[in-house]
Amino acid sequence: MLENWVVMPTCLPLVRRRCHSCASERFRANGKFRVNANHKVIDAWLLALCTVCGDTTKLTVLERMNVRSVRPELLDRLHDNDPVLAAELLQDPVMRRRNRIALDWDNAWRLDTGGSDHLDREVSDVSDVSVRFAARIPVRPVRLIAEGCGLSRAEVGRLIAEGNLVSAVRLSGRLSGDFTFTLKR
């Protein structure tokens, strides 16, 4: 039987960037944008607040763009402070590189296993599980499997070493893309 698990974001991730005021390294983006037009050019920033001192940093979204070259839908979303747009922009690798930021996904996602019936199966059952990511959230597969199956991470490591937990992808390290695994209990 194939089970489907989904890794879903619960909120926007923290932005890792050094604060100029207090030397903290974490900012919370709340989905607010600042848009500034000067004649025919426009600038837009995603605002983020330092988690320690509350200082604001601006993450560049548009820089010195001709107003006519910006899609009207994007402009409307910026003016409406669209939180979905903020999430999309934070996951954009070009924007992260331009602003020299990284994302901290700790406590910003949850695993939806579709119920807990997989925990009550017989010990001899074989489970095929498909894990899908609703966003590019880097997570260790061992952590996902431990959380989804109600096991400790050490127990998951033992199952991998014994060959009772197999996957086509490497289960050590971090993944942010869909994968499947088979668990033999």
H/E topology pattern: EEEEEHHHEEEHHEE
Total count of helical runs of at least 4 residues: 5
Biggest sheet: strand arrangement: 7-1-8-10-9
**Biggest sheet statistics:** 5 strands, mixed
> Uncertain spans, ≥5 residues at pLDDT below 50?
none
Overall 3D form = elongated
How confident overall, as mean pLDDT? Answer: 90
Let me know the number of strands: 10
Structural class assignment = alpha+beta
> Cα distance, first to last residue?
14 Å
**Oligomerization:** single chain
Strand content: 35-45%
Helix content: 10-25%
Please state the CA-atom Rg, rounded to the nearest Å. Answer: 21 Å
Molecular structure report:
It contains 5 helices and 10 strands; from the N terminus they run E-E-E-E-E-H-H-H-E-E-E-H-H-E-E. With 185 residues, it is an alpha+beta fold. The strands form 2 sheets. A 5-stranded mixed beta sheet has the order 7-1-8-10-9. Helix 4 packs across helix 5.
Give a short overview.
With 185 residues, the protein is of the alpha+beta class. It is built from 5 helices and 10 strands, in the order βββββαααβββααββ.
Topology:
Elements: E1 2-9, E2 14-16, E3 26-38, E4 41-50, E5 56-66, H1 72-79, H2 83-91, H3 93-99, E6 102-104, E7 109-112, E8 126-133, H4 141-149, H5 153-162, E9 165-167, E10 179-184
Parallel strand pairs: 1-8
Antiparallel strand pairs: 1-7, 2-3, 2-6, 3-4, 4-5, 8-10, 9-10
Pfam family, one: DUF1062
InterPro entries: DUF1062 (IPR009412)
Protein name: DUF1062 domain-containing protein
